[in-house]
Amino acid sequence: MSDTISYLLMAWLDPQLLALTAIGTLAGIYVGAIPGLSVTMAASILISFTFSWDVNHALALIVGIYCGGVYGGSRTAILLNIPGAPSAVVTAFDGYPLAQQGEAGRAIGLSTVMSVIGGLFGTLILASTAPVLSDLALQFAPRDYFLIAVMGLLLVSTLSGKSLARGIFSVALGGIIGLVGMDPVTAQGRFTMGSIDLMGGIHYVVVMIGLFGVAEAFYQLHFLSKEPVRQKVDKIIPAFSMVLKYLPLSLRTGVIGVIVGALPGTGGDIASLFAYDHAKRTVKNPSKPFGQGAYEGLVAPETANNAAVGGAYVPMLTLGMPGDAVTAIIIGALVIHGLNPGPMLMIETPHIFWFTVGNLVLANIFLLIFGLTGIKIFTKVVELPKALLIPLILVLCVVGTYSLNSNMTEVYWMLGFGILGYFLKIFGFQMGPIILGVILGPLLDETYRQAMSSVGDSVSAFLLALVTNPLSLILTSVIVLVLLGNTPVKGWVVGQFQRSQ
Amino acid sequence: MSKKPERLQAGERAFDWLLLLFSGAVFYQAYQITGFSSINSAGAFPIGLSLIMIASSIAVLVNHRRKEKPNTRGPLDELTSFLRQHFPINVLVFCALAVAYLAAIQPFSFFVSTFAFLALTFIYLRQGKIVSSLIISAVAIAVIYVLFTLVFRVYLP
């Protein structure tokens, strides 16, 4: 118990860790707020810079960036009607009308407090459920891990874009990229095309920086001339009675945020959409009609997207499955530092788990402090022209990629992935599923082969195990239902049901 | 009231056909690993993934039937419309400067090539403002040096 408390307070008592969490949170608010910069981009570039650091220092900075970044997008959504991050798209629906009505300060204050409540709620759920889930996960067979990874990737494909087929293609493409190099079991080359450089594989950070950094920079060149509209900001700190009034809605949407965040591949953007929809359906008398400045329309998405942060950590720390793109990057950081994300993390390195919990709480406290102050400087910084920002992003991508292995070839690869990402982006392919595919591809390959070995390479025995083992049966059923739910079969079943009524 | 079908983007069909071709090439490469020798071989999972790529790219192409054709007259018009829409001059110039920048890093050193890249892109994207662009580039170089060499202590190209 005393060990747990000392791990929890590690970031609070060490001045360096405290400072890194604070810097990360502050930087995250700006990264999340500046349209064109994203938390995923910042985290993937930072991983390469913090490569040689102590793992706690690297994690403290990334946790701060993550918490600050998810919140930061709401500020520009309210002030400029430009969501700085996808998770803040919904915030603009009611936040910007509030700003136009002269209530920008109150909207920012309320969204800050609700974000912190959401963040702390998500962390509480993480701390209470992860140890139990982790114990349960120890009993999973390789086959179950394989099924969980398939389910996660399928959910990513379904929820992260308009087309399931494109989502599945992205995941499989990512998986192939992740498998490039030497097979760890037989040492055979896979997709190396005779190149010695490719025998070591393609570092997933190179792919990430290319897809999230360079592709995004190219894409942002389309929006160079968008002029922001300035708003007057005054009283920021919301009245206690106001916070109390919206607390029940905040807690309900917090639950939505945690659950959506915990589903592999879904993050704050989808959580905020679900929460907004929930608020619209359940709040009978909003302060103003939704879409015209309802406080409820601000409270719901802001609580949910920050609660999703804690939710996203649950599958990452218990199963080694990323909850969203940022946790996918954090998994990579843990692996780089020699740790083993998954159920063994709680047994081998419990300090990392409790340190993360304590660090998330700390980051939320810093979020409250920075969220309610410094708004005047903030409005100046976020208006940084994209004409300056985009070339700087490219330079950061070059430095980040090179610093991984001091290898210029990887920098060329990074640019290549950036150009590929740009093409995929303009035709509606999502980057998140590709990255999750890159990270989960090797894990899927490994668990698939272990599962097949355990049944003596017998396909029929493998298929039989899918329906005879209770957990495997549940997972297989979910996968089949998700697949069927995205085919015309769903329409046919619904039609039959309606006719029978 | 029926929902209006989505319209295909200019170049979307060609791109999706290219993805199918690419998936076929990936399948060939996956087959080259161990063929169909065993369900548990080094090539088994890659073959599975490549088949998923082929199936999903066929599904993407089949979904085109539900969409309206692009508002263009003939393949040439579609190509020009695609280039106009997705490759405005800003993107092309930036892409060319980025490639030139990467090519220049090793022969001309990181700091010189980065300064030149930043100055040229700032001047181009801000349509002039030469003096302020040069000053901002110099400040950016100083910040990069302090941040990455002294604070993060990473190797620069």
From TrEMBL, chain A:
Segments forming domain DUF112: 18-436
Transmembrane stretches, start-end: 17-39, 51-71, 77-96, 108-130, 136-156, 163-182, 202-221, 325-346, 352-375, 387-405, 411-440, 461-484
Keywords: Membrane, Transmembrane, Transmembrane helix
Pfam families from the UniProt entry: TctA
Name the UniProt record assigns to this protein: Transporter
From TrEMBL, chain B:
DUF1468 domain mapped to chain residues: 18-157
InterPro entries referenced in this protein's UniProt entry, alphabetically: DUF1468 (IPR009936)
Transmembrane segments: 14-31, 43-62, 82-102, 108-125, 134-156
UniProt superkingdom: Bacteria
UniProt key word Coiled coil: no
Keywords carried by this UniProt record: Membrane, Transmembrane, Transmembrane helix
Pfam family, one: TctB
Protein name, UniProt field: DUF1468 domain-containing protein
Organism: Litchfieldella qijiaojingensis
